[in-house]
Specification:
Mean pLDDT of chain A: 82
Number of strands of chain B: 0
Distance between the termini of chain A: 23 Å
Order of helices and strands of chain B: HHHHHHH
Largest interface: A-B, 34 and 30 residues
Oligomer: heterodimer
Strand content of chain B: under 5%
Radius of gyration of chain A: 14 Å
Helix content of chain A: 25-40%
Low-confidence stretches of chain A: 1-13, 125-135
């Protein structure tokens, strides 16, 4: 686990949280990614139309252009149940994520300082591949 | 109102294209995303008769125009996938001081890819503005 972020577990108590957990599970399966929530949904001030501001952190992004990471994000979001819900996903390598959060600059640094950067834990997997399966590289 | 948004989107994409030659790649890419967003919002307004959500999610706007995700053409899905990272990468410098700022981050290939993707989405939205 990234020591630069103190996670707060999000449990699947509501439909939104269930959506987030399903997305986190799919991202873990496909990209070995950890998923974090920030923004109004992390602050608890979101309205019905608010974006889902998420960060995916994966070593598989290391060799990809920032413009080519997780191109199937919308399909993953749809599979998780995000039909007609606004996803704003930011993709980082672990090193980039540390750079964004450790110094406290920018929106992620601010979110971390405010305690509004929440780790989303996947729901218990039903995946046939299971945890730690081979991750997509492109 | 939807027509006004589409018209603005078409102006945006015209000037976005012109920014490639003077190497304003990040601005071209950013404006391509903006144009796409406006075209989709215009179509939403036209089809649904109400204000679109004032969000930046291109996929959400496209989904509001169809009844089922299977109605989204593969070429449209692919184009939105190309445009998805653009806004974040071209708007503000990141919080990581080791990162390049947006003006140094976007190359010609990424800008041209964004423009082609934007044109694909804008073309798709025009179907809702044809005379009936």
């Amino acid at each position: 686990m990234d020591p630069s972020v103190v996670p707060a577990e999000v449990t699947a108590t509501g439909s939104d949280d269930a959506l987030l957990c399903r997305f986190a599970r799919l991202m873990e399966e496909r990209y070995c990614a950890r998923v974090y929530l920030f923004g109004s949904r992390a602050r608890g001030t979101a309205g019905a139309q608010s974006d889902y501001d998420l960060v995916a952190v994966s070593p598989t992004f290391r060799y990809q252009s920032r413009f080519r990471r997780c191109l199937d994000r919308d399909e993953v979001w749809l599979a998780a149940g995000g039909w007609r819900k606004a996803l704003d996903l930011h993709c980082y390598t672990p090193a980039e994520f540390r750079g964004e959060t450790a110094g406290g600059l920018g929106y992620l640094g601010h979110a971390k300082r405010q305690g509004e950067l929440l780790r989303i834990f996947p729901t218990p997997g039903q995946s046939s591949r299971g945890r730690g399966a081979a991750c997509r590289q492109s | 109102m939807g027509e006004r948004f589409l018209l603005q989107a078409e102006r945006d994409i015209e000037f976005a294209d012109a920014l490639v030659v003077p190497r304003g790649y990040y601005l071209a890419a950013n404006l391509a995303h903006q144009a796409t967003e406006k075209a989709l919002k215009g179509a939403c307004w036209r089809v649904r008769g109400e204000q679109p959500p004032w969000k930046h999610s291109l996929r959400q706007l496209a989904e509001l125009l169809v009844d089922d995700p299977k109605q989204l053409p593969e070429s449209l899905v692919a184009a939105i996938a190309v445009l998805n990272p653009i806004l974040e990468q071209t708007r503000y410098p990141s919080g990581n001081v080791a990162d390049p700022i947006p003006s140094d981050l976007v190359d010609e290939t990424s800008a041209r890819d964004a423009l082609a993707a934007a044109n694909e989405v804008i073309l798709w939205t025009r179907q809702w503005f044809q005379p009936r």
